[in-house]
Design brief:
With about 230 residues, the chain is an alpha+beta fold. The chain has 6 helices and 8 strands, in the order βαββααββαββααβ. Helix 1 (about 15-30) runs antiparallel to helix 3 (about 80-90).
Length: about 230
């Protein structure tokens, strides 16, 4: 299963509120959700969080998460009339398409949390990571799951934790922009802030992460999610 992340930013002149509303209530419902190969689909709308990682911070104001069965189904989705004559044509209406970032991943659920619900109340922190220069990709993948992820899963107040590796196809013609996407789920913004300000994060998580990743390529976004297709697969 491909777990795809699509980071999007508002087109020039569009407010963040209008962008998020159009994406979730118009584009996702009228266009993207009609692509038949998509099994599950949700929109994450960015919320303010002091100290977002990354310099400069990510310009994106939301993330779509899409689940597809495999690469063949993904290709079929991009060739479908629902995409070509619908979702793709609508994109310039609301998104700065030249800023869109797509990361196809294989997800690893490190901390199994409560089952997803149609109307989730939690918040989550999505983090983009790039391995240290010179580190082989295989070593990064092995160490990120074997040594780093179990430590990250110990954050206080954490409900659920995913560590998702960028799929091999992203490296066919060179380096992928990012090697991992990880997601931390919390009950509310306050428990998220408390976790990141905790001694455990400073003394355990940060050193473990520093041993694997290039600090110039760590970016984060806090968001609330809204299911468009799901949480059950169609």
């Amino acid at each position: 299963m491909i777990h795809q992340f699509i980071f999007a930013a508002p087109r020039p002149g569009m407010t963040v509120a209008a962008f998020q509303d159009y994406w979730a209530n118009v584009h996702a419902v009228r266009f993207a959700s009609r692509i038949p190969q998509i099994k599950r689909y949700l929109i994450n709308s960015r919320i303010p969080l002091e100290g977002d990682w990354g310099s400069p911070p990510l310009p994106h104001q939301g993330i779509a998460e899409i689940w597809l069965e495999n690469e063949e189904e993904q290709l079929a989705s991009l060739q479908s009339p629902e995409f070509l004559q619908g979702a793709r044509l609508d994109e310039p209406t609301w998104a700065a398409f030249w800023r869109t970032l797509v990361v196809d991943t294989t997800a690893h659920e490190i901390l199994v949390g409560p089952p997803p619900t149609r109307d989730p109340t939690w918040v989550k922190l999505t983090v983009l990571l790039k391995r240290k220069p010179g580190m082989p990709l295989g070593e990064y993948r092995q160490r990120s799951l074997a040594s780093y992820a179990p430590i990250a899963a110990g954050l206080p107040g954490l409900l659920r934790y995913l560590h998702c590796h960028t799929r091999d196809g992203a490296y066919v013609f060179g380096e992928a922009s990012f090697d991992s996407v990880e997601q931390f789920f919390f009950n509310n913004p306050d428990t998220l802030r408390e976790a990141l300000a905790s001694p455990y994060f400073a003394e355990q998580v940060e050193p473990a992460r520093a041993g694997l990743v290039d600090p110039k390529y760590v970016f984060s976004m806090a968001a609330r999610e809204r299911w468009i297709i799901g949480p059950e697969a169609r």
